[in-house]
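note to self: dont lose this again. the chain is below, predicted strucutre after it. 248 aa total, dont forget to put it in the shared folder this time
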Amino acid sequence: MLYLISDIHGNLLEFKQILKKIEFDGEKDNLIIMGDILDRGPDGIALLRYVKPYILDNSMELLLGNHELFAVMYLNGVLGEKNTDRVLDERTWTAFGGGDTLKSIKNMTAFEKKNLLSFLEHLPIYSEISSRYLGNVIVTHTGIDCNNYVMNADGTINVKSSIKKAFENNIYSYMVGMDLHQVPKKDKERFDQFIIVGHVPCFRLNKDMSNKFYRTDYYMDIDAGAGHMEQGGTLGCYCVTTDEEIYL
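---
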C-alpha cells in the first residue's frame, strides 16, 4: 500500500495511532509525509527521530513543509534577519507554533544541530506518484504559485516545473503561500498533473467546516487539521492504492 499523510505537527501519539489503524508495515508499505511534521504539537523533534529509520530504509519519505523551513532558517542563523521578503524572528516562529521545536533545538549539542540541519536541508519539495484513480500525481506541501507558471508547448501548465521555479525564486514566499486555492478555474483546467497538498487545514476549505479531505477535479488537500486539534482538527491519511480516506 502507498499512503500519504500531511501536517502531523508534533503529534507523535496520534501518528503512532494512525499507523496502527492502517496496519502500516514498513517491509511492504510506503508512506509519504507531506511536510509540517514539526511545530504546534509538543513532539516535533521526537517525531523526526521516530520516522528517520523508516526514511533511511525507504519505507517513508518526508517532504519539506514551511515549518521545516522555519527550523532550517533558525539553524542557519537567519531568524531575525531579512529572509527574502519576510522577517521571521523567534517570537514570530513561536507564534506560528514553533515554541516546543525551538526549545528542543536549543537543548541540542552543536553536533546534533549540524546533523538536523543537514537532514532538513536535503528534504525534497515534491514527490511524483502514479494513481489508478488520479493519474500521474505531484505530491507536495503547498502546491503552486500563480506568479511562477511554466508553460508547456501545448499551452498546459507544467506543474512540476512551476513548483521548482517558485521554490527557486522565493523559497519563503512559496512555502508559506496558499495560491493553489485561489488559482482561477481556467488555469486549474490547464494543470498537466493532479496535485495533492496539505498546508491549509481542510476545515478552512470545506463549506461545512469539516475535516474531511478537500477534493476538486484538479487537486486535493489532505490536511485534516492535526495542528489545530483545539478547533476540532484530527489526523488523516490517504491511501493512494485504494483511494480510501482514513481518520483518527
